[in-house]
């Protein structure tokens, strides 16, 4: 798990899609805060995470807390989009080789969810 968490932080610093692709298990599942059904498979998980990087990857994004329990990690983040303060968590489960097998995002407050939904929708349409 430490391998995976270290690789995730390296990806977050670099934004390099090749690092992300190596990190995601082929059968990974992504749980969006605004899409009802889980999104399964490396390709779609990559698409969501790359879009999130475009939307949330600004100078105000920061991880402020990290909780590790076995193969599970919870990373709390803060951000600001268009004057709306965002607070959220990334819940990540890694396999024994350090690859992401499950990634869940939760966001608050409601204004933040609506802003993320709006901007993620626009970004995903571009991809």
From TrEMBL:
Residues 7-101 form the SnoaL-like domain. SUPFAM superfamilies: NTF2-like. It holds the Pfam family SnoaL_2. It comes from the Bacteria. This is Nuclear transport factor 2 family protein. It comes from Novosphingobium olei.
């Amino acid at each position: 798990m430490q391998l995976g968490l270290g690789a995730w932080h390296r990806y977050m610093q670099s934004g390099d899609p090749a690092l992300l692709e190596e990190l995601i298990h082929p059968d990974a599942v992504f749980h969006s805060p605004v899409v009802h059904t889980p999104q399964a498979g490396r390709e779609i998980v990559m698409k969501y995470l790359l879009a999130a990087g475009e939307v949330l990857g600004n100078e105000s994004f920061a991880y402020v807390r990290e909780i590790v329990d076995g193969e599970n990690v919870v990373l709390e983040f803060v951000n600001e989009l268009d004057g709306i303060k965002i607070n959220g968590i990334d819940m990540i489960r890694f396999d024994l080789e350090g690859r992401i097998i499950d990634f869940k995002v939760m966001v608050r407050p409601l204004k933040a969810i609506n802003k993320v939904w709006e901007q993620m929708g626009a970004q995903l349409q571009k991809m």
